Amino acid sequence: MNSMDIHQIFQHLHHRYPFLLIDRVLDYTIGDSLVAIKNVTYNEPFFQGHFPQRPVMPGVLLIEAMAQATGILSFKTAEAQPEENSLYYLVGVDKARFKQPVEPGDQLLIEVKLLRTTRGVWKYAATTKVDDKLVASAEVLCMKRDIQ
């Protein structure tokens, strides 16, 4: 079983608090799939306004968590790490579906599976579950780009 702690995750993602949405990688298979977790806590900054009477994690952040998981798997698969002059961008989201709300106290189980790589674009099938119940799914497309 291949796992990664938060210090190893920092080596593969530029993201930091409050935008790092992966707490641990439970397992991965290079070139195939990755399983990660995100612990959702009440003190996340987005809960103050979304929604004060009933805190719900925004759907776009569920997509972002899935995209961050794909970034880790892409870097592991390419045997590379982020460089200062490039970023791994989310370039597309297809077939996004949200099945139930995510609330403080939930633990997200994020699963991504590499579908294909074409001309530098990595396409993944991604799901997010809480307590074995599907909460979100999407096809996520990402690409490494140089920055000026």
Characterization of the model:
It is an enzyme of class 4 (lyase). It holds the Pfam family FabA. The protein is an alpha+beta fold. The chain has a single domain (6-146), classed as Thiol Ester Dehydrase, Chain A (Roll), CATH 3.10.129.10. It is built from 2 helices and 6 strands. It has helices at residues 6-12, 59-77; strands spanning 24-29, 33-39, 86-98, 107-118, 121-130, 133-146. A 6-stranded antiparallel sheet has the order 1-2-4-5-6-3, with helices on one face. Strand 5 (121-130) and strand 6 form a beta hairpin. The longest helix is centred in the middle third of the chain and has 19 residues, at 59-77. It is globular.
Q: Please give the number of β-strands.
A: 6
* Name given to the CATH architecture: Roll
- Into how many domains do the coordinates divide? 1
| Unreliable residue runs | none
Instruction: Output the number of helix runs.
Output: 2
CATH third-tier fold name: Thiol Ester Dehydrase, Chain A
CATH superfamily: Hotdog Thioesterase
How can the largest sheet be summarized? 6 strands, antiparallel
Give the N-terminus to C-terminus distance in angstroms: 38 Å
Question: What is the strand content?
Answer: 35-45%
Mean pLDDT: 95
Give the helix/strand class.
alpha+beta
Write the H/E string, N to C.
Answer: HEEHEEEE
What's the CATH C level?
Alpha Beta
Strand arrangement across the biggest beta sheet: 1-2-4-5-6-3
Rg, please? 15 Å
Q: State the share of residues found in helices, binned by percent.
A: 10-25%
- What's the shape? globular
